[in-house]
Amino acid sequence: MRNVFGKLFGFINGIRKVIVNLVFFIVLFVFVGFLMSGEETIEVPTDGILVLNLNGYIVEEETYVDPVDEFFNQALGSGPSIPEVLLSDVIDSIEQAASDERISGIYLNLSSFMGAGMNKLELIGNALSEFRDSGKPIYTYGDYFSQPQYYLAAHADAIYLNPLGGMMFDGMGGNNLYYKDLLDKLKVSTHVFKVGDYKSAVEPYIRNDMSDEANKINRLMSLM
Fold it and tell me: Is the CATH number of domain 48-168 2.160.10.10?
């Protein structure tokens, strides 16, 4: 009986060693491949087109990912849940393409573009305008154009939309909340010190609506 259990234990232990060794070599090969994989050298042909696939959100700094998680994500072929594109990479690519004689134009693919803040859109738009000023065309394609997508598309020489696609524009707008009535009901007193007519930061606490001065300055700012 003892021999039977001994042989069974030896068999199970052998299987365990095989599995552990197999997993070890798989991880080792993946790790070596990760270390050996460098940046691919791209051959730029004459009269080439710069393809800009803005896949994800435009950010100034990528979200921090733990190196161990990044290693296993690459090993398993999975990436971050929300793709991110560095603003500096986009602008640098456009600026380099403008001065590169091998690049004859830009193909801007916005199908997977998820959006960006207005300041980032303006910076990319300015870079695209400078690229066009160099005499090179920009062609844009999208399956669907949201407002941020069309803002960038408007800088192109030609815009192509999927025949089954559409557009959604919300326009630029804003709103303020005013608390004077609420504060009066709660018997909360406010003490405001301000100088000048165009100091509207404290208006929500002392008014129930927007002053004419604040309305005027907001309209002027919307035209900038």
Answer: no
